[in-house]
Design a protein that fits this description.
elongated, four-stranded antiparallel sheet, 9% strand, alpha+beta, 4 strands
Length: 190
Protein backbone atom coordinates (compact mmCIF):
# COMPACT_ATOMS: atom_id res chain seq x y z
CA UNK A 1 0.00 0.00 0.00
CA UNK A 2 1.46 3.41 -0.87
CA UNK A 3 2.63 5.48 2.05
CA UNK A 4 0.29 8.26 3.22
CA UNK A 5 -2.80 6.49 1.96
CA UNK A 6 -5.60 6.04 4.46
CA UNK A 7 -7.11 2.63 5.02
CA UNK A 8 -10.85 2.14 5.48
CA UNK A 9 -10.14 1.35 9.14
CA UNK A 10 -8.34 4.64 9.79
CA UNK A 11 -11.08 6.55 7.97
CA UNK A 12 -13.65 5.14 10.37
CA UNK A 13 -11.79 6.37 13.45
CA UNK A 14 -11.91 10.07 12.60
CA UNK A 15 -14.05 12.10 14.93
CA UNK A 16 -15.69 15.39 14.16
CA UNK A 17 -14.02 18.38 15.75
CA UNK A 18 -17.04 19.97 17.46
CA UNK A 19 -19.53 17.14 18.09
CA UNK A 20 -20.67 13.81 16.73
CA UNK A 21 -24.40 14.41 16.53
CA UNK A 22 -27.19 16.44 18.06
CA UNK A 23 -28.34 13.24 19.76
CA UNK A 24 -24.99 12.94 21.54
CA UNK A 25 -25.28 16.51 22.79
CA UNK A 26 -28.79 15.85 24.11
CA UNK A 27 -27.55 12.65 25.78
CA UNK A 28 -24.73 14.51 27.57
CA UNK A 29 -27.12 17.22 28.76
CA UNK A 30 -29.66 14.69 30.01
CA UNK A 31 -27.01 12.55 31.71
CA UNK A 32 -25.44 15.64 33.30
CA UNK A 33 -28.77 16.76 34.75
CA UNK A 34 -29.68 13.30 36.05
CA UNK A 35 -26.20 12.44 37.37
CA UNK A 36 -25.91 15.85 39.04
CA UNK A 37 -29.22 15.42 40.85
CA UNK A 38 -28.24 11.92 41.93
CA UNK A 39 -24.81 13.09 43.11
CA UNK A 40 -26.43 15.83 45.20
CA UNK A 41 -28.81 13.30 46.75
CA UNK A 42 -26.01 10.82 47.48
CA UNK A 43 -23.80 13.49 49.05
CA UNK A 44 -26.66 14.88 51.16
CA UNK A 45 -27.58 11.41 52.44
CA UNK A 46 -23.97 10.43 53.16
CA UNK A 47 -23.06 13.62 55.02
CA UNK A 48 -20.50 16.41 54.89
CA UNK A 49 -17.53 14.12 55.40
CA UNK A 50 -17.98 12.61 51.92
CA UNK A 51 -16.45 15.65 50.22
CA UNK A 52 -14.16 16.72 53.07
CA UNK A 53 -10.46 16.89 52.34
CA UNK A 54 -9.27 16.11 55.84
CA UNK A 55 -6.58 13.70 54.69
CA UNK A 56 -5.16 12.11 51.53
CA UNK A 57 -7.76 9.32 51.58
CA UNK A 58 -10.61 11.85 51.50
CA UNK A 59 -9.00 13.69 48.60
CA UNK A 60 -8.68 10.45 46.61
CA UNK A 61 -12.39 9.72 47.14
CA UNK A 62 -13.32 13.24 46.00
CA UNK A 63 -11.22 12.88 42.84
CA UNK A 64 -12.69 9.41 42.20
CA UNK A 65 -16.22 10.83 42.51
CA UNK A 66 -15.39 13.52 39.95
CA UNK A 67 -13.83 10.99 37.60
CA UNK A 68 -16.83 8.70 37.92
CA UNK A 69 -19.21 11.57 37.22
CA UNK A 70 -17.21 12.52 34.11
CA UNK A 71 -17.30 8.92 32.91
CA UNK A 72 -21.07 8.77 33.37
CA UNK A 73 -21.50 11.94 31.34
CA UNK A 74 -19.13 11.25 28.47
CA UNK A 75 -18.84 7.51 28.02
CA UNK A 76 -21.74 6.08 26.05
CA UNK A 77 -20.85 2.58 27.19
CA UNK A 78 -21.66 3.43 30.82
CA UNK A 79 -25.37 3.41 31.55
CA UNK A 80 -26.75 5.87 34.09
CA UNK A 81 -27.65 3.10 36.56
CA UNK A 82 -24.14 1.65 36.35
CA UNK A 83 -22.67 5.09 37.04
CA UNK A 84 -25.03 5.68 39.95
CA UNK A 85 -24.02 2.32 41.38
CA UNK A 86 -20.34 3.32 41.07
CA UNK A 87 -20.99 6.67 42.79
CA UNK A 88 -22.96 4.94 45.54
CA UNK A 89 -20.25 2.33 46.03
CA UNK A 90 -17.54 4.98 46.38
CA UNK A 91 -19.59 6.95 48.89
CA UNK A 92 -20.50 3.81 50.84
CA UNK A 93 -16.86 2.67 50.98
CA UNK A 94 -15.78 6.13 52.12
CA UNK A 95 -18.51 6.14 54.78
CA UNK A 96 -17.51 2.70 56.08
CA UNK A 97 -13.81 3.58 56.10
CA UNK A 98 -14.37 6.94 57.84
CA UNK A 99 -16.66 5.34 60.44
CA UNK A 100 -14.19 2.52 61.08
CA UNK A 101 -11.30 4.99 61.39
CA UNK A 102 -13.22 6.93 64.05
CA UNK A 103 -13.88 3.77 66.04
CA UNK A 104 -10.77 1.65 65.43
CA UNK A 105 -7.28 2.97 65.96
CA UNK A 106 -5.77 0.32 63.64
CA UNK A 107 -7.96 1.48 60.74
CA UNK A 108 -7.20 5.12 61.53
CA UNK A 109 -3.45 4.43 61.39
CA UNK A 110 -3.90 2.54 58.11
CA UNK A 111 -5.79 5.27 56.23
CA UNK A 112 -4.54 8.48 57.87
CA UNK A 113 -1.07 9.90 58.03
CA UNK A 114 0.28 11.54 61.17
CA UNK A 115 0.97 15.28 61.16
CA UNK A 116 4.69 16.01 61.00
CA UNK A 117 6.54 18.84 62.70
CA UNK A 118 8.88 20.47 60.14
CA UNK A 119 10.02 23.52 62.12
CA UNK A 120 10.38 23.92 65.87
CA UNK A 121 11.26 27.15 67.67
CA UNK A 122 12.41 28.83 64.44
CA UNK A 123 14.67 25.90 63.51
CA UNK A 124 14.13 23.58 60.53
CA UNK A 125 14.02 19.87 61.41
CA UNK A 126 16.19 18.44 58.64
CA UNK A 127 15.32 14.79 59.21
CA UNK A 128 11.57 15.52 59.15
CA UNK A 129 11.97 17.64 56.02
CA UNK A 130 13.84 14.81 54.27
CA UNK A 131 11.40 12.11 55.33
CA UNK A 132 8.41 14.16 54.09
CA UNK A 133 10.23 15.34 50.94
CA UNK A 134 9.70 19.00 51.79
CA UNK A 135 12.29 21.70 51.10
CA UNK A 136 13.15 24.53 53.49
CA UNK A 137 12.00 26.94 50.77
CA UNK A 138 8.51 25.38 50.88
CA UNK A 139 8.39 25.88 54.64
CA UNK A 140 9.49 29.50 54.25
CA UNK A 141 6.80 29.98 51.60
CA UNK A 142 4.15 28.67 54.03
CA UNK A 143 5.44 31.07 56.69
CA UNK A 144 5.26 34.03 54.29
CA UNK A 145 1.76 33.00 53.19
CA UNK A 146 0.66 33.36 56.83
CA UNK A 147 1.98 36.92 56.89
CA UNK A 148 5.10 36.28 58.95
CA UNK A 149 8.39 37.72 57.76
CA UNK A 150 10.87 36.02 60.08
CA UNK A 151 11.39 32.28 60.56
CA UNK A 152 12.54 32.91 64.13
CA UNK A 153 9.09 34.39 64.91
CA UNK A 154 7.52 30.99 64.23
CA UNK A 155 7.15 28.44 67.01
CA UNK A 156 6.04 25.53 64.78
CA UNK A 157 5.28 24.52 61.20
CA UNK A 158 3.35 21.29 60.81
CA UNK A 159 2.76 19.29 57.62
CA UNK A 160 -0.85 18.24 58.13
CA UNK A 161 -2.45 14.94 57.11
CA UNK A 162 -4.06 16.59 54.08
CA UNK A 163 -0.71 17.92 52.81
CA UNK A 164 -1.25 21.52 53.92
CA UNK A 165 1.06 23.49 56.19
CA UNK A 166 0.00 24.92 59.55
CA UNK A 167 2.14 27.79 60.80
CA UNK A 168 1.99 28.65 64.52
CA UNK A 169 3.63 32.00 65.34
CA UNK A 170 5.26 32.40 68.76
CA UNK A 171 2.69 35.07 69.63
CA UNK A 172 -0.17 32.58 69.16
CA UNK A 173 1.39 29.41 70.56
CA UNK A 174 -0.37 29.55 73.94
CA UNK A 175 -0.22 26.20 75.73
CA UNK A 176 0.64 24.37 72.52
CA UNK A 177 -2.26 21.95 73.03
CA UNK A 178 -3.07 22.08 69.30
CA UNK A 179 0.16 20.14 68.77
CA UNK A 180 -0.82 17.29 71.08
CA UNK A 181 -1.35 14.87 68.17
CA UNK A 182 2.10 15.67 66.77
CA UNK A 183 4.75 13.27 68.07
CA UNK A 184 5.79 14.37 71.60
CA UNK A 185 9.52 14.07 70.92
CA UNK A 186 9.20 16.49 68.00
CA UNK A 187 6.88 19.08 69.52
CA UNK A 188 8.48 22.38 70.54
CA UNK A 189 9.04 22.90 74.25
CA UNK A 190 8.22 19.31 75.13
Amino acid sequence: MPQGRETPRSLGTRRPMLFNSAGDLVRVLAMAALAYLILIAVVRVSGKRTLAKMNAFDMVVTVALGSTLATILLNRQVALLEGVLALGALVALQFVTATASVRLRSVRRLVKAEPTLLLSDGRMLDEALRSQRVTPDEVRQAIRAQGTGAVEDVRAVVLETDGSFSVVPRSQYGSGSALDNVAKEQSPGR
